[in-house]
Write a structure and sequence with these properties.
Blueprint lengths: L5 H10 L3 E6 L2 E5 L7 E4 L8 H11 L7
């Protein structure tokens, strides 16, 4: 799986219709109209997210690995 930083995941979510609601410390909270999920993305500079966390965020958002 491709490694992505928190900022790259935020851009990917915004492209797919997710909206940044608030920033709480280093965590960016995203929501989407018509969905009850809230997705929290840790942004620590250009540090890549760990594979398990990245897969979890993609699963919650409905984005396929192939779309990366």
């Amino acid at each position: 799986m491709k490694q992505l930083s928190g900022l790259a995941v935020c851009r990917l979510l915004e492209i797919n219709g997710w909206e940044l609601r608030r920033i709480n410390g280093s965590h960016h909270i995203f929501t989407k109209q018509g969905r009850i999920e809230r997705i929290s993305v840790p942004v620590h500079g250009n540090k890549p997210l760990k594979v398990g966390l990245l897969k979890s965020i993609l699963k919650q958002s409905g984005i396929n690995e192939a779309d990366l």
